[in-house]
Structure formats: C-alpha cells, structure tokens
Amino acid sequence: MALSVFGQRSCIVTERGMKGMTWQRARTEDQKEQRIQELTDAAARLYTSNKLSEITIAMIAREAEWTRSNIYKYFATKEEVYLELLRSDVAAWAADVETMCTAWSGSIPEFARAWAKLPRRHERMVGLMSILLPVIEPKCSVERLTAFKRSLLALTTTVAAAVAGAVPFRDAQAAGDFIQASSSLLMGTAPLWNPTEKQLEAMHAAEYPSDQAEFMRVYIGAVEALLVAATNPASEKGTN
Predict the structure, then answer these.
(1) Are strands 2-6 and 11-16 parallel, antiparallel or unpaired?
(2) Which of 91, 141, 168, 189 has its CA 20 to 30 A from that of 80?
(3) Domains along the chain with CATH numbers
C-alpha cells in the first residue's frame, strides 16, 4: 500500500511490507536493484526446498516480507523473478570460468574435467537452465526475455574469450561453438544428476543405470570430445 508522508520540505512516497515495515519507494537505479535483489534472494531461499512448480508469487511475497501488489511493480510473474535469478547465477558461473581460465596451463583432458565439475558448484543455475525454454520463458514478457538474452549473449562472449585464452581453439568461432554445444549437453544431462526418490526407485526396478559417478564420467568424456573437435585444425566447420 502506498502512503504519502509530508515533511516540511518534500513529499516522500513509501511502500509498506507484510509486517508493517515501511521503506522509501525505489527512485534511483541503485534502489531499484536493491528491491530486485531482495526479491531474488527470497526466491532463491524458497528454491532450496521447493520445486518451481510449487512456488507462488504469494510465497515469494511472504519470504521477502512484501505484499504481492508491490512485487507486481517489478515482476509480472514468478517466472520473471526466476529469470532474473538465473541471470545472476549465470554471471556467477561466468566469473568462475574466468577465474579458472586466467592461469590455466593444463592439458585438454584436464580442462575437460575442470569444466565438467564447474556446474556442480552452480546447481541452481543448472536446474533453472534445464527448464528455461519449456517452463520459464513462456511466462515472461518479450521485454524481459530480450533483456535476459542480451545479458546471456554478453556473458557467453566473455566466457568464450576466457576459454580461448586457456585452450588452443581453432578460431574464435570454434570457441563459441564449444560453449554453445557444452551448454546444450549440460542442460540435457543435468536432470540425471539429481533424480527424485521416485525416479531412483523406478531406475533401480528397471535396472536402469543410476550411478552418478558414471554419469559424470560420460559427461566429462563428451566435453573432452567437443574440445578435441574444436581444437583440431582439420575439423573445420562444414568439413564432411
């Protein structure tokens, strides 16, 4: 609820949260970013013990100590909140990649192992990325998606440049192709890393492979194969 508070010199408009907390309406970009951070922090806490399908705007409001009406001043849907959370998670992952690549001097197989282990430190990002296209994006506005994709493109370019400084790729295009291909591979295999109890039960009953170490071994091998192809001068794009 918006309240007008009149002082001797100016009129200050405030917003009231669920517990009667009052704060000044965001007027600057810094204040707006702070509000958005409060909401994504609340969404992140909820995501640790709930699936996205179970989370509602009302739950985010309670966790952040906001009213739902105030959330709608910043995000139209819960999916837009999680899109913003994913953007910050990808930025954190990109920073990790840059740190890893800065002083890298190992072999391609060693890089493949290091690259494959990075997502395990960013499991929320991996989980959200795996449902980005079918679940999150359809519930976001074109404006939100455009901003997200611009940010993702900039981060991908930064990551490709960092990786190119550590691995002798054939050319810049090969580095970009590796990032795209390995990301697609990750989104496809990520659900296998954290199956539900029901899924595990079914896998065991069907004698379906469920060894997490084996999944990682196969993933590392696939990443290494992508790296070898991207660093091989004979593997030029369009070669039969």
Answers:
(1) antiparallel
(2) 189
(3) 1-74 (no CATH), 78-240 (1.10.357.10)
